[in-house]
Amino acid sequence: MPMTQADIHSHYETEWKRKSDKAEGVGDLSYSLGFHDAVTYP
To answer: Does this model's pTM top 0.70?
Structure first.
């Protein structure tokens, strides 16, 4: 079954939180990717 926009948003939000929580400094943080923004926020 294809992923819906809500599925994609949930996946990236979960990944962002996981990476944010384990970041050891500002250099380890990333806030968005161009393709993610284009798909999640058309």
So the answer is: no
